[in-house]
Every structure is written in structure tokens, then in C-alpha cells.
Sequence to fold (547 residues):
Amino acid sequence: MKFFKKILLVVAGCILFACVEKETSLTTNDVKLNLIPQPNAIKTYAEKFVMDESTVIYYPESNQELKKQADVVNEVIFNQTGLKLPLESYDKIPQKGIIISPLEDNESLTTDESYKIEINTKKVLFLATTVKGLFYAIQTFRQLIPLENEKDTIKITCLEIDDKPRLPYRGMMLDPARHFLPAKDVKKYIDAIAMYKFNTLHLHLSDDQGWRVEIKKYPKLMELATVRKETDGDGVPHGGYYTQDELKDIVAYAKERFIEVIPELDVPGHSQAMLVAYPELTCFPDDFEVRTTPGVSKNLLCAGNDKVFEFYGNVYRELAPIFTAEKFHIGGDEAPLDHWKTCPKCQKRIKDNNLESPQHLMSYFFERISDTLAKHGKTPQIWYELDVPFYPETSTMYTWRGGLTPKTIEKSREMGYKLICSPGEHAYFDYPQAKGEETCDWMAYLPLEQVYKLDPGYGLPQEKQAHIIGVEATIWGEYVKDINRAFYMTFPRAMALSEAGWTQMDNRDWNDFKSRLKRNLQILERKDINFREPKELANDEFYLNNF
Ligand code: ACM
Ligand code: ZN
Fold:
């Protein structure tokens, strides 16, 4: 920005600040709020803004985008208090009411997710440079409004919040491959995670146990790969898939809530369901069936068969315009090399390309898949496996295996990959939250406190963690049979994870987090979103002392 413009902004800022100071004199006071994720700068005052049914919500004139956000503010207030407020547009910033500022350059709002809220006795002012930032201001405001019913006036603490996220990627992963989740349920999930400032929904759309997306060129997928005859011997067929229209609808719905949907089609492993429809794409075709139990299949896509890349090229061609995100997850996890070691086509590929080992064939495979994706404008997201010698340069890696994250952070930095932190010991939300809640014998426990302990930078100096761009939790679906269960496994742990992604370590504290929890669980309850009551905190002084 030009120097002159900078000076103007500073002067304008000072005038604005002076006006606020003059019209209201506020008393600094340490008022307890219950915000999750904890904002990075807050100043609170003893005074209150009082709102009643005559309080107006203002938005800038002729700005339909911001009018829509004014509607969101109104809905939030109505849901929590029963008050329905009038909306008005303005051409000059009003002096009182609930005011959405115009989106303007502001030196102190440094990311597209930054926002400010200023509340004094006369007004609530939302400031952001993007609609997304404004949306996050509103999510914070939701938590500032008391949960009241049938009260004529609502009081809100006067304050200043100046906030922006620690990390730009904050994701949750759902697994409708293991148990299908209908589109309407996915939308409800999007609503819930948007409240906690998640900006990514990663959908794991294919696995050994099911293929869940409509591909028009390959109808046998829908016929044969989307249904399994039973699950763990229950004798009940299970199936389902999203039509392309449903996927478009999910993506659009998420976009309105500033969530990007990243699809995942797992290759070269976890592919048994699609191989039922197209067995010629594996090394040793057989009469496969869609897998009915958890576990890892040895039937990989054949790295020596060009038809594999042709097939995925056609799949990506259909999906690329539907999933508008540039990111596309290609799985890459748990791909045992047994068959590649004996398959004549794979062995020929190794020889023809002078590859050193079957592990190098894995790197080759990802290069080819990545090139195929790139033709459709997408970059690969991949689960990091440390025995794979290298990944495509443009990859974003996900660290996931328990115990290996420090090594993965180091290696991805050396190799120049961006990294998303999804370590098993902090972010695998299919794991039970407490003793007595086990669903199988191979999962560790993942209590709330253990999620909260995640520092995505693992305490490293800034220059050694600069490549870590985000956090993500996974809800693998083997034992997550419907959306209610997904919510139960998600909350409150996703609140803890949201803080790991959003809040600087200096502003985080487990005891303080516990004291902010109850109010947020009440908000979920009001919205009919399932969660696990943190029973282990029943007698915890911080959890109980939440107001
Ligand atoms: C994974 O948990 N297999 C990425
Ligand atoms: Zn092969």
C-alpha cells in the first residue's frame, strides 16, 4: 500500500477511535467470557450493551452479500434469545445498533479470516475485510449472546476483540465410505463445525468397504461398488452414494459457511470396492466383493497398468468442476507392496523406469496420479507414509500415524512439503473418549484433554514449523454408523481441536478451556446437535465454574 494511503488510514483510525472514546466511557474489567476457540486479543469492560426488540441490525446499503450476513446475525440472536430484530441498510455508519461495517482495507486486519468486534453501550460493530472474516466475527458473537428465553432485554458485555487464526487450514474429516452419511446429514455437520471456525470438510469418499460418488462414465461403480452385503457379520446390506447433483449442493452449502470441501478417493490402496466393478485395474484380478470388515486389503491398483491412470483421469474430469477446491486428496495410506513385488506389469514398470525399489514405484505412482490431477487444476493431498521415498512437489502431506509426527514434521520440512497435523494420538476422533466406550480392541483412548494438548507446531522454533499449515481431525467410519454418532465422537473434542488450529499457544490453557466448555455444549444442545457429556469433568472445579 502506498505510504500516503497508509497515513490516511492511520489518521482515520485515530478519529474513529477518538469518537468511540468520546461517546462512551468504559471501565476496563476482567469479565469472564465463554469463547471457543479463544480469540487472540480481548479487552473487556464492566458495562453492557442492552438489546431489545427495537435494536436495529444495520448493513451497508445495496450490499446483498452483507445483508445475508445481517440475516445470519438475526438468526443467531433469534435462536438464542427468541428476539427477532429489524434490519436496515445505511449509507453512513450509524451511531447505535448492531452494525456490519463495509468491507474495507484495514491495515490491522492481516488475513482474510481476521475480524474485530467492538461493543460499547450504544453499539456492536463488526469489522472485517472479507465476508469470511465477518462470518467468523458472527460466530464469536453467537457465543457472546446469553442463552435466554422469553426475556425482553438481553445484555452483552462491552469489549474489543481483535482476532485471527494461528493456522490457515482447520479441517474435520468424515468417512461416509465405511458408513454412508446422507447429504442432509453432511449439511448439518457443516453447520456445526462452521460455528467453531473450521474452514475445511474432508470427505473420505472411497475405501475397501464402499465407493460413494456417482461417476457417469463408469456406471458399474454405482451398481457394484456402493453396496456391501453386510458389516462385521450382521447380515444387513449397507450402501449408498452421492449423486453429482447432491455433491454440488453440499459444496455450495459449505461455501456459504466458508468451508471448502476436499474430496478423497484413496489410491492405490483402500480400493477394493471399486475393484469389484473394475477388477482389471488391480495386479491379480479376482472375483472380489466389497469388503465387509475393517482392515487393510492387499489388492492395490496396478502401478504397471496405464488404464489405472486413464480411469482416474476420467473420474477427476467429472469431479473437478464439482469440487471447486484446488485440493484433492488421493489417500496414499496403508498400501502393502506384496502384489506389486510379484506382478509382471509392476515389475516391468520398475525395470523400464530404472526404479530402485517397489517403494520407488509408489513414488512413481503418485507422480503419475498427480500429473493426472494437475490436468484438472488440482493439487494432491496425501497421508504421509515415511517409507515412500518422495512425493510430488506440489503435495500437501497429512501426518497421522501415532508416534511418528515429530519425524514426519522434520522430513516434510526437509522435502519441502506443506503439512497438516492430524496425529493419531491427538486427532483420531473415532477413538473412544473414555474407558467403557470402546468399540473394538485396536483403538487407543483419546480423551478431551489429550486433544487439547495438541500443539500443531510440536513446540518447535518458528522456522522449523513454518511449513505446518493446519490441523485436522478424522472420524473414521467403521464404527460410526450415523450422523448422531459422528456428532457424539466430534463434540466436544472438535472444540479442543479448533483451539489448536486457531489460538496461539500463549493464549491457550486447559483449565480455562474447561471453564468455557459448558456454555458451548448448551449452544449445541439448543441446536439439537449431539455431543458427549464430558462425564470425567463432572466434579472438575473449572468445568463447573463456567459463568
Ligand atoms: C489412515 O488412518 N489410514 C490415514
Ligand atoms: Zn501390478
Q: What stands out?
A: The chain is about 35% helix and 15% strand. Residues 172-508 form a domain with the TIM Barrel fold (CATH 3.20.20.80). The first strand starts at residue 42 and ends at 51. Residues 283, 302-304, 340, 343, 345-346 surround zinc ion (ligand 2) (CB under 6 Å).
